[in-house]
Design a protein that fits this description.
Layout lengths: L1 H41 L5 H33 L3 H29 L5 H9 L1 H4 L7 H27 L2 H24 L3 H4 L14 H6 L4 H6 L25 E6 L13 H9 L1 E7 L5 H10 L17 H8 L3 E7 L14 E5 L5 H18 L4 E7 L25 H26 L6 E6 L9 H6 L3 H4 L3 E4 L7 E8 L3 H8 L25 E4 L3 E5 L3 E6 L4 E5 L5 E2 L5 H12 L5
Parallel strand pairs: 1-5, 1-6, 2-8, 3-4, 3-5
Antiparallel strand pairs: 2-7, 6-7, 9-10, 10-11, 11-12, 12-13
Helix pairs in contact: 1-2, 1-3, 1-6, 2-3, 2-7, 3-6, 4-19, 14-15
């Protein structure tokens, strides 16, 4: 008798477990229906590859999420309280809460471009009324609960018939194949820069597709070439918001000298005497911030004029900056001078340029000298108005040419560790070398040339690239911005805060005579106007900082955030300021087509 009761108990639990698996699977299908709202935000695929990947990844991902919810919240209760009525009601409530949470996440993703996390939840709670406009947050959960209860009872009554058909193993196999295949396909897509696949990387919550770019590239898969041949997807950005209206009175030559890792605080008389003197004689922006702490994010903000959250927009893999489009349409010849191994990027940021790359052998200082020689030859042979971007790279690797006679070492104004002191003075030698090259270039310019001299990004003294990548302190993003306007001799020292995003509006309005408001194509006002924003976005779409007057908030792609004082020296124990961060999120979605 006792043995029979145990057998009955095991059969009951087995039936409940089987029911739970099917209940989780069907809820995975319901989650796919809800998750379709994510595709309204990021856009549907335009190719067979995109649709195929989207189908298998969606089935695999949402089925996996549904099973994990079952495994964590329902399965333990099955063993503790193996009573069908209790379990059905409890599982229906868990499923309802999960689907409501997913639905809420689709709303937040549509508005902010981020998924739920502690940071985003705090932000969304402060903006709840705006987020839930037109959404019935009372009727919807009740309707979902009714559906879940009906589904739970329907399955329970038919679970024996379903078990007898023995299709469970086939369903598990299909879902498992979809899950594994989606990750394998993504490994290939990531290595080959197939945007029809990588476009969906951040679309779904808790999605971490596998990558193996370095491994795949070692087998000869070169993504950039393949990427460039792909058909552009359906547009998800309206950039610019309105057609550009530009009518230039004159066409001066324009030179932009963008120096990698050029800190603003070391443009002084002892380190960079020429640039220090040049800044005093022209328009010098003393509180200027790059758009990022890395080369790609700095160049993105400089040429597109957009905050770094747009750097993963697929449209910009194919659409060049408005600035270079307008220059080309007005008859300018565009030239880009840098080192050949540093300008690989999936974006079309350099598409309008004629690229003249210096070869990199073992010294960026040598490459910089070659870049300058290439630039001089190009300008001498060009007979139409030109826009040239000269990128110098030596300071990033503390490099100087062999035999370079530098400057004497000095004590740093801030406290440094012993290893940092060595890097600090070697960095100064490199800046002094670059200063001499800038002087040579500027003195050779034809009369009436507009000159922009700035840093792509700042510099922190470390040999650890991972540490430098994650550091968004002022040392990493404060850079000089010095402009010589043609036919203007009055020097100005501008002390309001400016950003790289403001250069594009400045050139388009002052040089090309564009009448569009800056908001049509940029995330900032012209450099020549104080911004009405109380914040600055620094970084890309994966990790970024919000600079405010008295604090710096650093946020990663998973929503973890830390708040520092204005000089990044002390971590503050406080909550973030929601109103400004809501503005940041809104700006990051402003150009998206809904």
């Amino acid at each position: 008798m006792v043995e029979r009761q145990k057998q009955i108990g095991r059969d009951r639990v087995s039936r409940l477990v089987s029911w739970g698996h099917w209940f989780a699977f069907i809820n995975g299908l319901l989650a796919i229906i809800v998750g379709y709202r994510y595709l309204d935000t990021i856009g549907l695929p335009e190719s067979f590859i995109g649709w195929g990947y989207l189908l298998i990844s969606t089935i695999g991902h949402f089925s996996f999420l549904a099973f994990m919810v079952y495994l964590v919240f329902v399965f333990p209760i099955t063993l503790i309280l193996p009573y069908s009525k209790i379990l059905r009601g409890y599982a229906a409530v868990v499923a309802t809460l999960s689907l409501c949470l997913l639905l809420y996440d689709t709303v937040i993703y549509d508005d902010y471009g981020l998924h739920l996390s502690p940071f985003v939840f705090d932000l969304a709670w402060a903006d709840l009324n705006a987020l839930l406009r037109g959404t019935s947050y009372i009727i919807t959960p009740i309707a979902i609960l009714v559906i879940e209860l009906t589904l739970a009872n329907f399955l329970w009554k038919r679970i024996e018939k379903i078990r007898k058909r023995n299709v469970g193993n086939k369903v598990v196999a299909i879902v498992g194949i979809c899950f594994v295949s989606s990750h394998l396909i993504h490994i290939w897509g990531d290595a080959a820069d197939v945007t029809e696949i990588t476009h969906f990387d951040d679309a779904y919550p808790l999605s971490y597709p596998a990558t193996a770019k370095s491994l795949m590239e070692s087998y000869g898969i070169e993504g950039i070439q393949e990427h460039q041949s792909q058909t552009p997807p359906k547009s998800s950005l309206q950039y610019p918001l309105e057609p550009m209206q530009c009518n230039a009175d004159s066409q001066p030559n324009i030179l932009v000298i963008a120096v990698d890792s050029l800190r603003a605080d070391l443009v002084d008389e002892s380190t960079m005497p020429f640039l220090s003197s040049y800044a005093k004689k022209n328009v010098n922006f003393t509180q200027h911030l790059s758009g990022g702490n890395q080369f790609n994010s700095g160049m993105f903000s400089l040429l597109y004029g957009l905050q770094g959250s747009y750097s993963n927009a697929v449209d910009l893999h194919y659409q060049s900056p408005v600035l270079t489009q307008e220059l080309a349409s007005k008859g300018y010849k565009l030239g880009l001078f840098s080192t050949q191994d540093t300008l690989a990027a999936p974006l079309a940021i350099y598409k309008d340029f004629e690229r003249v790359d210096a070869e990199h052998l073992n010294s960026y200082a040598k490459s910089d000298l070659q870049s300058i020689a290439n630039w001089q030859q190009w300008t001498r042979s060009t007979h139409q108005p030109w826009f040239s971007l000269l990128n110098l790279k030596s300071p990033d690797s503390y490099d100087t040419p062999i035999g370079f006679l530098g400057i004497k070492t000095v004590q740093s104004a801030t406290k440094l560790k012993p290893a940092q002191k060595v890097l600090f003075n070697q960095y100064r030698q490199s800046l002094n070398f670059i200063d001499k090259q800038i002087e040579q270039v500027v003195n050779s310019l034809p009369e009436g040339t507009m000159v922009v001299i700035t840093g792509v990004n700042g510099k922190m003294f470390t040999s650890n690239s991972d540490e430098a990548r994650a550091n968004l302190s002022p040392d990493s993003v404060r850079v000089p911005m010095i402009i010589h306007w043609p036919n203007e001799t009055l020097p100005k020292q501008i002390h309001y805060r400016t950003t790289h995003n403001g250069l594009v509006p400045a050139i388009l309005t002052q040089i090309l005579g564009c009448t569009n408001p800056a908001s049509d194509y940029s995330s900032d006002q012209s450099l020549m106007q104080p911004s009405d924003k109380t914040w600055v976005y620094v970084g890309d779409h994966r990790i970024f900082a919000i600079y405010q007057p008295s604090e710096i908030t650093v946020i990663d792609r998973h929503g973890k955030y830390r708040i520092y004082d204005s000089e990044y020296r002390k971590r503050l124990k406080k909550k973030m300021s929601a109103p400004e961060l809501i503005e940041v999120m809104r700006e990051g979605r402003r150009l998206h087509i809904h």
